[in-house]
Amino acid sequence: MQFDYDDQNIFAKILRGEIPNNTVFESDHALAFRDINPQAPVHVLVIPKGPYMTLDHFARDASADEQVGFMAAVAEVCRLEGVEPGFRAVANAREDGVQDVPHYHLHILAGRNLGPMLAR
Ligand code: 5GP
Q1: Is residue 54 in contact with ligand 1, taking CB distance under 6 Å?
Q2: What domain range is 96 assigned to?
Q3: Which 8-state DSSP code applies to residue 98?
Q4: Per the domain annotation, does 75 fall within a domain?
Q5: pTM as predicted
Q6: Known active-site residue 29
């Protein structure tokens, strides 16, 4: 699979500081910030700092340090946001996954019962 990263996507602009964000956590390898259109009381997006388009792109091509750093950021967001009662992590990819922003991001949703995984 060929991945052609577009560095004009909105999350690339956030990473470059060209667009503001509401940061929850930042490390060398990841940035976590609040979704502009939250679908739950907690709705945080965790993104890698490298140019990866989707979860499968990141899992295939990111270095071990990037992958460990990303997952450490997920753990830190869960700790900071107090998701003990539960949460959902969602990674949309490409057309059928209805991905809007072509920079890999993991949605962390929590703060209420989230119901069935998919609308039927
Ligand atoms: P996707 O459909 O690609 O999985 O999700 C993209 C998410 O990014 C959406 O939930 C949308 O609300 C969020 N989003 C889009 N533009 C911005 C922005 O400029 N700032 C923030 N914080 N979130 C954004």
Answers
A1: no
A2: 12-110
A3: T
A4: yes
A5: 0.98
A6: no
